Amino acid sequence: MSGITVKFWLLVGVFLATLRFQVFAAAVSSNVCTLRPLGAGEDDTDQVSVRKRIDPNRLCASMLTPPCPRRPGISRDRQLWAVRHHHLRGRRIQHHQEDDVELGFFSSRDARVPEREWEFQPDIQYWLNANNTYRVVYIQDQASWFVVTGTDFEIDAFNSGGINGNGQPWWDYYTTVPRLDGDGRPLALTLYNVTAGRVTNFRIESPPFWCNAVAESKNVVYDGMVCNATNTNPEFYGQNIVPNTDGIDTYRSDSVTLINWDVTTGDDCLAIKGNTTNLYVANITCRGGNGVAFGSLGQYVDLPDIVENVFMEDMNMVRLASYIQPNMGSGVYFKSWSATVNGTPPTGGGGGLGYVKNVVVQNVKVDNVTTPISLYQTDGAEAGDAPSKYQFEDLTFSGFTGTAQENTIVSIACSSAAPCPNITFSDIDVAPPSGEAPMYICQNVINESGLPAPCNATGMP
Predict the structure, then answer these.
(1) Going from the N-terminus, what domains does the chain have, and what CATH number goes with each?
(2) Which of 268, 291, 270 is nearest to 280 (CA)?
């Protein structure tokens, strides 16, 4: 393996607490380089040798060469890993135990924070400066803290490693400051331009914005992901002060697998955005928020959004105590913009074309959600807008059980300019509030079948 190389570009994140970084060579197990923390207020950035080439047979010579340099200062930089893992032939990046490559970051600032996390300090104005984050997710001009890009790799955090976003100060701050799409709030973990990448057993605590995004990628597997956006400030109990903390947004990506997720959020548990194809989702628990979203879609008038071949199964929507998170919107819902262009993205838009086709959602438990199954095509719309021309077709829903907060169990409101063909239901057994009859609303739907009662514009028999 003497010719094996890995490239890491580290635009190193914020490690103001204790930091240890270890790299283990595959071929020379004794060749271990250990970086010791410089202490509070010191800058550990230079210790990981930004944009250096790593040769596993000459790690200390090419990368670290102990004793490591010590320079004062505070590092707040974004972080990018570029992994050319086809040179590694099946190696793994581990965030817990020794193996070919181990990255161990420790936080001692707060006893409640588990070890081995990347901790990003809540210097809000610093991070809102576009120069201090990485912009690789085109949709709505999102900012990223930690970006991984490359081929044929696995990152394993062993259920104890991950990212701490210190979101509470951000959430408190935005109770008095308006939130806007693209305003610079950073998403925690981004996979960008990845082929055959795998993330396993990863945790993201207190993200100020989205937990994850995958963009411009293919053949990606996330197996085991915990995202937790829970307000702990009693001043705001009973309010949703954690919007936009999506578990993941998928964009311009093919053959993505999401399995074994647990997401506590005030927004979309999963958000399937434009040009997501061949997506498999299984064993997902969504705690609070809006449920699983397809959209929003059609925001960019010059960029078609295509979502096709999606299979979801075994999902559980759990309503939390209202003082923690008042919302639990849907099991699954779909949304597109109208046909009228109102402003420009990231805050405005509309008029985009495309379609969602061949979607199967099955075996979903809902716990007192507002509307278990929903579709609407007026996202971002204003009075008098032209009806959307975005197309939804070939949608299948089966095996929905549980309870709804309201009596509308299904609400499919398709556009008059793009009626929805082939909407199929089976085994929809969700109970409305006691004493109320379930309602099923269908507008501009062609070839609907399988509901236990008529589905029409009024929801009445």
Answers:
(1) 1-247 (no CATH), 267-461 (2.160.20.10)
(2) 270
